[in-house]
Amino acid sequence: MAIPKEHSPKLVSLFSGCGGLDLGFQAAGFNGVWANDFDSDAQAVYNLNFGNGKIDPRDILTVGEDEIPDCDILTAGFPCQPFSNAGSRKGVHDSRGMLYKECLRIIGKKMPKVIVFENVKGLLSTKYIDGRNLAEVITEDLSNMNDVGYNVVHQLVNAADYGVPQNRQRVLFVGVRKDLGKTFTFPKKMPRENLSVGDVLSRPKDVPNQVDWELSPQALEMIAYIPEGGSWKDVPYEHLALRFQKIRDDMKKYHSPKFYRRFARNEICGTITASAQPENCGIVHPLENRRYTVREAARFQTFPDTFKFMTDTLRDITAMYKVIGNAVPVELAKNIATAIMEQIFQGEGVIEQ
Predict the structure, then answer these.
(1) Among candidate residues 88, 182, 92, the one with its CA nearest the CA of residue 136
(2) Helix 314-326 and helix 40-50, axial crossing angle in degrees, nearest 10
(3) How many domains is the chain partitioned into structurally?
(4) How far is residue 219's CA from residue 201's CA, in Å, rounded to a whole number?
(5) Residues 13, 133 within the same domain
(6) Mean pLDDT of 268-288
(7) Domain residues for 241?
(8) Residue 153 has pLDDT above 60, yes or no
(9) Is the model more confident about 348 or about 278?
(10) What's the mean pLDDT in 324-339?
(11) 168 within a domain of the structure (yes/no)
């Protein structure tokens, strides 16, 4: 029997993006009571799907702790760009890299039963300003919170092991308040069934948002030479852009990166990124010389076809690739949330308001 929404564990979501993490947690039975994101494109998509005014649009730096509802669980996908292998890797020296401190500020006031942080793999190799490993700092900060603290575990997970048709590695921190006497255990990996590119692309086409962002003439010239399952290395040297010729001239120096990867229909797709650029992710269709459509990209992130995106203008389309790429895959969120619900909240009381 389903728990009535008013009695479900209350969820506060920070750095919510367009709602992938929230959608997964709500599907597992959590009741979203407050969400926040500063990005206007993410806000627009969130409001379109969860209801107008459902996300607080303010900069989290300006939001007081008392303005946020009490909650049983707090999730945060704080900005990952400072720690990303695809970015500059400034880490905590980038102002966005310290935004997790805002999470600590709010957690310290609310002391929810459970906290969940999600970030990129690069966080694990990032050093704090004093030289310590950042993951250890986050764990220590949460463990010592308000003399109560949290039992914290963190793990590098691949979304493909949790029902997502995408090899997407992310680090998850899950903290359980120590007075509950519990520690979270990550769920077992699931069989990788029906997760191939072909499985995703074989789904019905008559759904909204089946539009794509046209590739540049230079990109179109290159991908014409890339077979299914291939990459830029299949392009004849004389048809490579000059910057790719430079890399081809010294493959050892550049570690032979797999730009312009065109994943085959029998493969699992690589990470869908916010940039949606073929040199940064496998966004090129296996057979057609185009990017995946907005809907196809959303399907790789396991958003249901009922989840709406805005694709009326080119600016909308490029923004939708961004919010989709930045999102937490819905099925990954749902599977982690289900494990949290079963391990921590079954038989537990929730906040009454």
Answers:
(1) 92
(2) 80
(3) 2
(4) 22
(5) yes
(6) 95
(7) 197-326
(8) yes
(9) 278
(10) 98
(11) yes
Predicted confidence (pLDDT) per residue in 204-243, tens digit: 999 999 999 999 999 999 999 999 999 999 999 999 989 8
Domain assignment of residue 350, yes or no? no
Dihedral sign (CA 100, 102, 108, 113): negative
Residue 320 CA to chain centroid, in angstroms?
14
CATH of the domain at 205: 3.90.120
Residues 11 and 119 in one domain: yes
Regarding whether 281 and 242 lie in a shared domain, the answer is: yes
Q: Is 269 a catalytic residue?
A: no
The 10s digit of each residue's pLDDT in 117-137 is 999 998 998 888 788 888 999
pLDDT top residue among 187 and 95:
187
Q: Which two tokens stand for residue 353?
A: 């308001």
Give me the residue label for tokens 């099925």: 331
Give the 3-state secondary structure of residue 72.
coil
Distance CA 209, CA 260 (A): 24
Name the one residue in this structure whose structure tokens are 């907005």: 294
- Alpha-carbon 154 to chain mean position: 16
Phi, psi of 135 (to 5 degrees): -60, -40
SS3 171: strand
Catalytic residue among 18, 71, 80, 103: 80
Output the six-digit token pair for 204: 């019905």
Q: E strand or H helix at 34, and its extent?
A: strand 31-35
- Does residue 172 sit within a domain? yes
Give the burial class of 40: count Cβ atoms within 10 A of its Cβ; 0-12 exposed, 13-18 middle, 19 or more buried. Answer: exposed
Q: What is the CATH number of the domain that holds 133?
A: 3.40.50.150
Quote the mean pLDDT of the chain: 91
pLDDT of residue 127: 83
Band (109; pLDDT cuts 50, 70, 90): very high
